[in-house]
Amino acid sequence: MSEVIINAENVVKDYSLSQGVFRKKEILRAVDGVSLKVLRGEVLALVGESGCGKTTLAKIILGLLPQTSGFVQLNGQLLNQIPRLKLAKMVQPVFQDPYSSLNPRKTIGSIITLPLTVQGDRNPQTWENRVRKTMDLVGLHQRMFHQYPNQLSGGQRQRVAIARALINRPAVVICDEPTSALDVSVQSQILNLLNELRKELNLTYIIISHNLAVVEHMASRVAVMYFGKMVEEAETSTLFSQPKHSYTQKLLNSILTPDPRQGIPDKLKTA
Amino acid sequence: MSDQVLNVEKLYVDIPVSEGILHAVDGISLHVNRGETLCIVGESGCGKSLTSLAIMDLLPKKAVRKVNSLELCGESILECTEQEMSDIRGNRMGMIFQEPMTSLNPSFTVENQMVETLSRHRGVTGQEASNLAVQMLERVGIEPATQRLRQYPHQLSGGLRQRVMIAMTLLCNPELIIADEPTTALDVTIQAQILRLLRELQSDFKMGLMLITHDMGVVASVADRVAVMYAGQVVEEGPVLEIFDNPTHPYTRGLMRCIPIPGKIDRTKPLGTIPGMVPSLVGEFSRCRFDGRWESGASGSSVKTTSLAPLQGKNRSFSVDESPKHFVHFCCDDCLHKSGHQIGEDLAQ
């Protein structure tokens, strides 16, 4: 039942920063020896402050960046041995900003069809039907098939991004801040949609977010990153009730509860 | 001296677009008391930011502002010339924007920018101005302030930049600060620090703070009063406790359903949503602004209703449960009846 779908061991990613033409290059270690297992059907949340390496790790798992050392396995197979097209069929991203992740000059229909074209799907006559079915699945109206992204609201655009990710029926979807560019009323619609789709299509999610309320609502397991390292990993309820690492405590302590009686959380008294 | 730092009555902002006229802000009235935090919440496009720009008279050129009265500390600033307005902005009215990177000038040091504010508004220059700047940076928790003063904005982190913005705004000891999403671009841990700082400074300096946000967590933590905006209008306003405990307008109720509350999350149930979309604000309204956005299955019996007392001289505006400060405004009779609240007898006349 609990089969490991993604297994990352000791992943390191270095960026070299140019300090000037004649100066020595400096190394920035964005991801520093992260090991991670993701089980099929679970929702793993990656949390941490900006610049802690969450997105870099996600890009490595998506095969968009090569790691400096360590390895990532998908379904037991090494990531760099899987051909790009096949990898893209198994792992798909949904990005933060639906305003910049959709090509403004393509219609919604062609945006969602593109992954089928790229994969060289053999039955072009079924494409439109499948796209329309996926649009139904994510709650997009059929008349939007011929519309352009600028005619859609933020929430609808994010639905298009989700439809595009799902058209090839991937096993893993990596959502990088899927709702932080959206309004609260739309955020809840998208979160509900992601949850329904996960049950319906037996998806595995990696959700990157710094909204801890969203994480608590969505995730079954949470991994906390801090300066490129994985500092804590636990079941959601355990992590929220008994945070161990001091950074996790600080993070949980800064949640703003939508309850006017609680006020701004106090500074954490650390020894 | 008046206790109201800011008083706006019947503010309209119209923007001509190719399809007609966009009524971005549609007759809103607001006030901020001395030492009080008013939070304005609403979805994107509901006119929150344009309201603040209209108050500062910083609207884009093609936008048209109409307002019945606009008072800063009891004085009307409606007839001010551009010269007089720029004496007020940054001096008596400060503004903090969402993106500290884009609101600081990247080619000048923090010192240049802070001293400029002082010499423009207070005529303080040279060493004296630098000293004041250092004091203010220390006040907002920047250490070591003398070193930071010589740095350029790109050498500072997001949280530090926002602190510099706040320090700059406070230099001239303004009566009112308008903060437009001051923490949206920051990390959660930094967000709490900045909000705590704003709150502290506000009570020290006895300023009025108008905070624009869409994060209910921020609202609950810092607000004294809340104004909920929807489609260019204020639909509900009142003390923060009353808004959270007894949301009365269907839109406010919808917003409250949408937010996952940490610690009270039932993961087996989907989150509440507001169905439908924000209506287009172009042209005149023929239907109710809230049409198609009612909670599905919300019938009269399942919804909690409260008693409303009509406000004198205002159509479809009511005070809630006889509270002197909690008001709700409906856009039309249709949504008023649909909400199922009991209305005091005065309406019949």
| Total E-strand runs of chain B | 14
Q: What's the domain count of chain A? A: 1
CATH class of the domain at 1-92 and 207-243 in chain B: Alpha Beta
**What's the CATH topology name of the domain at 1-92 and 207-243 in chain B?**
Rossmann fold
Assign a percent range to the helix content of chain B. 25-40%
The CATH architecture term of the domain at 1-92 and 207-243 in chain B is: 3-Layer(aba) Sandwich
Query: How much of the residues of chain B is beta strand, in percent?
Result: 15-25%
CATH top level of chain A is: Alpha Beta
Write down how many β-strands of chain A occur, each being a DSSP E stretch of 2 or more residues: 10
* Mean residue pLDDT of chain A: 88
Radius of gyration of chain A: 20 Å
Q: What can be said about the biggest beta sheet of chain B?
A: 10 strands, mixed
Query: How much is the average pLDDT of chain B?
Result: 86
CATH superfamily heading of chain A: P-loop containing nucleotide triphosphate hydrolases
CATH homology superfamily name of the domain at 1-92 and 207-243 in chain B: P-loop containing nucleotide triphosphate hydrolases
Percent of residues of chain A in beta strands? 25-35%
Largest interface: A-B, 39 and 45 residues
What structural class do helix, strand and pairing data of chain A support?
Answer: alpha/beta
Oligomer: heterodimer
